[in-house]
Predict the 3D structure of the following.
Amino acid sequence: MRERKPIRNSVRFEVFKRDSFTCQYCGRKAPDVVLQCDHINAVANGGDNDPMNLVTSCFECNSGKSDKTLDETHILDRQRAELEQLNERRAQLEMLIQWRDQLANLEQDQLATIEGKVIKSLACPGLGLSEGGRDSLRRMVKRFGAELVLDAAQSSAESYCERGPDGNVTHESAARAFSMIARVAAVLQLSKDKPYLRRLYYIRGILRRRLRYLNEAAAMQLMEEAVLHAMDIDWLERFAKQCRSWTQFRKELDAFIEEEIRGED
Ligand SMILES: [Zn+2]
């Protein structure tokens, strides 16, 4: 029988990290279960300790397919086995903590990069983020993802950044642009799920500029309802550019929706 060489700790750490500290057989994770490195090709069959031949397995899953016949009936053996498990658990907790630190560092680096890009979008000389600003950026990235936040920062800068007499973007307007990023990101995300929403926001903007009174929330709801009933968005935009009042707009769309509903019966 071939000798079983112990797997080096650094190798085990790499394998656990690769498998996200998750048993690849049952999906349970450390520290809920004690993990082991299982040989895909068993040592008895010539398998080695190369990471490619190793997979993360919990103690239970591994012992189920183990080829060893350990007689653990003897109390001393059992105690020794328990002690080994305890030591193993401790070693793994340390690995787990180290892994989480590495992930946290990675997140920190990523956040610093995003922060740099957001500051660049706002293009305001001397602008930096406060601790609070950094915190809200971190929450935004967690909620919307980096890409959407960067898009939103760009779009918010275009909408809200204003230049002062010296030609530079003012701190005040840049701060406002920053504070609007989360809202812009939320709209961008909605438009991703419902591609027509972006156009409806645009049409709402037309109405807002043209009409003396507009119930913006009701207008959005009504337009969305109409579009879901197959109203042509191009027609809607043309209509928004020539209708004279919120009442006229509402009546027209209501009538369209009513007709569609009756037609569907
Ligand atoms: Zn398992």
The chain is about 65% helix and 5% strand. The pocket of zinc ion is lined by residues 23, 25-26, 28, 57-58, 60-61 (CB under 6 Å). Residues 66-72 have pLDDT under 50 and may be disordered.
